[in-house]
Structures are given as structure tokens and as C-alpha cells.
Amino acid sequence: MPKIIQKDKLNQTLLIQLLPKIRSGDLFKLNTDEIAKLLNISKATLYRVYPNKEAIFENFVSGMIEFLKIDKKINLKQTKRNNEEFEHVFFKLFVTELIISNDFLEKLKINNPILEQKITNSLNQQDKKIIEFYVERLNNNQNVNVNPRMLLIQQQATLQYMLNPKRMINGNISIREFITSFYQLQLKVIGNDSNKNDSISPELLDKLMHKLEETLF
After folding, report:
1. Separation between Cα atoms, residue 35 and residue 57, nearest integer Å
2. Quick check: 110 and 211 in contact, CB under 8 A?
3. Are 183 and 162 in contact (CB under 8 A)?
4. Which residues are within 8 A (CB) of 8 and not within 5 positions of it... i.e. 6 or more apart?
């Protein structure tokens, strides 16, 4: 029998459970009956929060646009090097590439071009802020001469590689090892405070692994 979820918890529960379908773009193919069955809730419960399927995408895009904003509490233009700031940016990049796939964007553009334009604009704004952050960091690292935009493109491409299971299997490396090595490599490129450890924190690594599990599986 379908379980009943309280209204204030349904939105978060629904989006988390639907992330794999949202990322792949398969959610566009499902009707409300199939979505309710997938979530193991009644159709009436689903309608209590979302009057139609479009409302699901509107809520998801709204949440992602808010996520894509660089938190004001993190001063990305601070000249002093700080691994906490880099961890924040690294997490943003990771989650963005994980959740907002090209398949989702392409299908969203077909089904709701207004929402697609909104999230694309937010992606561009995040890219701009991250590049500004890299400019500041690279200016303090005289040993590296790297185009900040190319660095960002390389990072995005590398994360997309990691999110392809077949490539990871053929590469004979675990996802944990990949993330750890990738983090250290990027931190070395943009410059690290010599007094700080360049290893990824266990808390951040666990957080990223959790995001992978709830989005891909």
C-alpha cells in the first residue's frame, strides 16, 4: 500500500528520489501515475504539492538556481589563500556536473525553454564567479601560468568523465580515489597555503559520495 508523506516533507523526499530520473531526462517521459508509483505514494498525495508534472521541474530548477549562487559568506575574491574557499567551489562544481546533465538540459529546452534559459543563465553566472576566484588564486601563484577559463573547462570535462561508469571501470580506479586525486591536482594548480594539507577532508569526500549515491543509484 502506498505510504503517506507529510506535505512539508514531500517536496524534498520527491526531488531526492527523482534525481536519477531528472538527471537522465527520463522524468519527461513519465506521467503523474508513473511518478506516484515510482515514489510509492498515492497520486492524491502527489497532487497535494504538485498540481501537474511541470510544477516538479519548476521546483527543481528553482532549487538548483538557488544552489548555483556562490554563497556570500565565502569571499571568493579574498587574496589570502584558503582551502575552505576552494572546497566550497569544488563542491559546487561537483554537484553541478552531477545533477545538471546535458541530457536534462536538452530535454528541458524542448519541454520548457523558459526554465531551460533560467538555469542556463545561472550556470553561466556560476562559471563567471568561479573564474573570478581562480584569477585571484592564480595571481598569487607565480609558478603557474594557466588560463582560468580553460582550467574550469578542464575540470568540468574531467568530472563528466568520472560520471561515466564505463570509463571509470576501464580506468581501474575507484570513485573515491578519483575524487581524492582530482581534488589534490586542482588545488596544486591554483595554489595552496604551504601551511595547509592539500588532502581532501573526509567530511567533504563523504558528502560528495553521498551526493553520488542519491543521484545515480
Report:
1. 13
2. no
3. no
4. none
Find, among 105, 116, 81, 93, the residue nearest to 189 by Cα. 81
**Digit-coded pLDDT (tens) for 13-69:** 788 889 999 999 999 999 989 999 998 888 888 888 888 888 999 999 999 999 988
Residue 103 to residue 28: CA distance in whole angstroms: 11
Q: Which residues of 118-155 are buried (b: 16+ CB within 10 A; e: fewer)?
A: bbeebbeebbebbbebbebbbeeeeeeeeebeebbeeb
User: Hey, is 175 helix, strand or coil?
Assistant: helix
The model's pTM is: 0.83
Secondary structure element (H or E) that encloses residue 176, with its range: helix 175-190
